[in-house]
Amino acid sequence: MLSVTVDEMQRDPSKYLRQVEAGETIVIVQADKAIAELRPIASSKQLRPFGLCAGEFTVPDDFDAPLPEYLLSAFEGK
């Protein structure tokens, strides 16, 4: 963990952002007191593997068949 002052951060913010992007955590201090922590965002969003549920669901043969008239009427508020 790297500590930098507010003045150092203001002089070259890109330098410190590159370090954060590389995985470094930076503590920003002012008057010898830590005021902020700058760290990379943990990427928790992983892609689901393709075919994860293969074979668990079968699409019925009439999946794209027209809806019955009574159901169409209900959707239309009749």
Strand order of the largest sheet: 1-2-3
Low-confidence stretches: none
Amino- and carboxy-terminal Cα gap: 67 Å
Percent of residues in helical segments? 25-40%
State the secondary-structure class.
Answer: alpha+beta
Strand proportion, as a percent range, falls in 15-25%
Q: Could you give the count of β-strands?
A: 3
Oligomer description:
single chain
Order of secondary-structure elements = EHHEEH
Describe this entry's structure for a reader.
This protein is of the alpha+beta class and 78 residues long. It has a domain at 2-38. It has three helices and three strands, in the order βααββα. The chain has helices spanning 6-11, 13-21, 69-75, and strands at 2-5, 26-30, 33-38. Strands 1-2-3 form a three-stranded mixed sheet. β2 and β3 (33-38) form a beta hairpin. The protein is elongated, with a radius of gyration of 28 Å. The mean pLDDT is 91.
Briefly summarize what is shown.
By secondary structure, the chain is α+β, with helices and mostly antiparallel strands. The chain has a domain at 2-38.
List its salient traits.
78 residues; 19% strand; 28% helix; 3 helices; elongated; alpha+beta; three-stranded mixed beta sheet
Topology of this protein?
Blueprint: E1 2-5, H1 6-11, H2 13-21, E2 26-30, E3 33-38, H3 69-75
Parallel strand pairs: 1-2
Antiparallel strand pairs: 2-3
